[in-house]
């Protein structure tokens, strides 16, 4: 049997910036994201992920791991605990420096982070919302979340939930070096939770108190720092470019000396433009020898590296690429969401133009009628077979148009319809989400056709 025709995925038009409320509403309605503890009134800055959200998150994580670890001979992965010895956070500089400075408006009582205010508002102590007077001396808040180990009052040890996930990488650096066959230059990668007592959480997943980060810490000889910094900077920018429709909404921005984090000597942010303006998506930080030197000093362990060939002994320098899983999730939803007007004046089509690699459901299997036994059993067997390779949804409820719409709204890239012709010639209709084009394909070719399009490469 031959394939009737082949159509490439349609490119997505430039669409207006999407209000955050649209994706908040869709996320809850369709099971991507829920407010945490909602039946108790919720907790600001903390969210849970629903059935579709967890699939999409796993896809995003797996694509990161695949490209950063599996595809780099010189990168290995770890998974560290979210609680560490409290001295870690003194050594890292977070106890001293991980702070937000806040001023209050005396009139409207709103609270602002000084680094979020325009210079003129800061200089004139003028509220950007009501024009009232701002307090002059900023109040300082540390973002680390405290916790206690032990049960006996008086013997309990105060420590912190990790404020940045990457600290485990420096703590495990020496163990990785001794237990695997890595040599400098090499990287350690990790995906994991971080916690921050953000004073101004908000904008849905953008600024949360519990969130997930992916980090690569790449250890190099100081003389090779420039080369590797440029390599990872470009690699990470291209990584994001691959996933988005609106490539012109991605850019680099270099940090000014007044905004560098305490551990960074230089930093570029990969920024993405949404209704919130240009905002950080990932930071590429020149951490130099800050972390290993500080942990050497505070722990008393010598963390210098000895080159096996030259025997040179030196403290490695570090390139860090650090991004947010949740911020990626949010940006991809904002990038993908569209309410497409219907040419016949009917209800607009809500569609998520998600890259097939990250879409939570890859294919929907739709028998044309649910009361025709042969259609249903063929459709069920196609669905059962595809489930071995990808997330497939079987749906026989409502007319075919309604079913397409349901799948478009959650970003399913392909719908497969089983109709009466299927029973005659063993072909099915494959409908593609963005262009809504349809082709006929033999059932025997369906799995490979879909795998080729939904698997990252
Ligand atoms: N280890 C370096 C580090 O933590 P960062 O710029 O503070 O650097 C890295 O965080 C990334 O983590 C950010 O680019 C952002 O994507 C994500 N992120 C940071 N704070 C966040 C928050 N409160 N909520 C959600 N994501 C956050």
UniProtKB/TrEMBL annotation:
Q: What EC number(s) would the UniProt record show?
A: 6.1.1.14
A GO BP entry is: glycyl-tRNA aminoacylation
Q: Which PROSITE patterns match?
A: AA_TRNA_LIGASE_II
Please provide, alphabetically and separated by semicolons, the GO molecular function terms listed in this UniProt record. Answer: ATP binding; bis(5'-nucleosyl)-tetraphosphatase (asymmetrical) activity; glycine-tRNA ligase activity
An example of a Gene Ontology cellular component annotation for this protein is: microvesicle
Q: What are the UniProt keywords, alphabetically? A: Aminoacyl-tRNA synthetase, ATP-binding, Cytoplasm, Ligase, Nucleotide-binding, Protein biosynthesis
- Pfam families according to UniProt: HGTP_anticodon (PF03129), tRNA-synt_2b (PF00587)
Q: Which residues form the Aminoacyl-transfer RNA synthetases class-II family profile domain?
A: 21-348
| UniProt entry tagged with the keyword Nucleus | no
First-tier enzyme category under EC: ligase
Q: Which Gene3D superfamilies does the entry link to? A: Anticodon-binding domain, Bira Bifunctional Protein, Domain 2
Task: Give the family, as the similarity comment puts it.
Answer: Belongs to the class-II aminoacyl-tRNA synthetase family.
- This protein's name: glycine--tRNA ligase
Species the sequence originates in: Dictyobacter arantiisoli
In the UniProt record, the gene name given for this protein reads glyQS
